[in-house]
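Escalation from tier 1.

The customer reports that the assembly of two entities below gives different structure tokens on two consecutive runs. Tier 1 could not reproduce it. I'm attaching the input and our single run for tier 2 to review.
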Amino acid sequence: DAKTTQPNSMESNEEEPVHLPCNHSTISGTDYIHWYRQLPSQGPEYVIHGLTSNVNNRMASLAIAEDRKSSTLILHRATLRDAAVYYCILYNQGGKLIFGQGTELSVKP
Amino acid sequence: NAGVMQNPRHLVRRRGQEARLRCSPMKGHSHVYWYRQLPEEGLKFMVYLQKENIIDESGMPKERFSAEFPKEGPSILRIQQVVRGDSAAYFCASSPTSGLGWGNIQYFGAGTRLSVL
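Tier 1 run:
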């Protein structure tokens, strides 16, 4: 399974944008890039996913590099409720998600 | 539309007892996945089931653990003769399809926290 690399932790101020990077240099052509997050004491929650083009939804935006070897999850205005562990996952077949260590995002008021 | 329901939320067992964890997928979802999160560790895939079939159990410990997803009723993760090392949060997820071709989205429950005394 293709591997992703994320910073262990990041800090943000409330109401400022947050850019969470993910490197996936061994991505294959059929791998989708998925982002999930896990708030404290909760189950993971789907955030966004994409294949080649940038994607937007009500929660976040996903910017995918042209060579697809990296991507960035963008939270446009961080709130205290966005404090969570964010996981970048490559997915190309039905079945299991392989979670790495993720990035622990803390948001300061 | 109710989300993925897991029960119980908290389960306490003594060593050697059995633990049964239940998961009701979202309405219309026929694919169920179980994950385990040990204290201070990441989420690890355990098993993937469709109705009445185990599709992938590559993450399941070979002994004491079993899972089923019957035609009627919730999916069950069963742990026999629990040991302290089984203490963890167990999460269930469901999806409407296997998602090939467009990228599968899995919807997770709140988890069952198992404590083995």
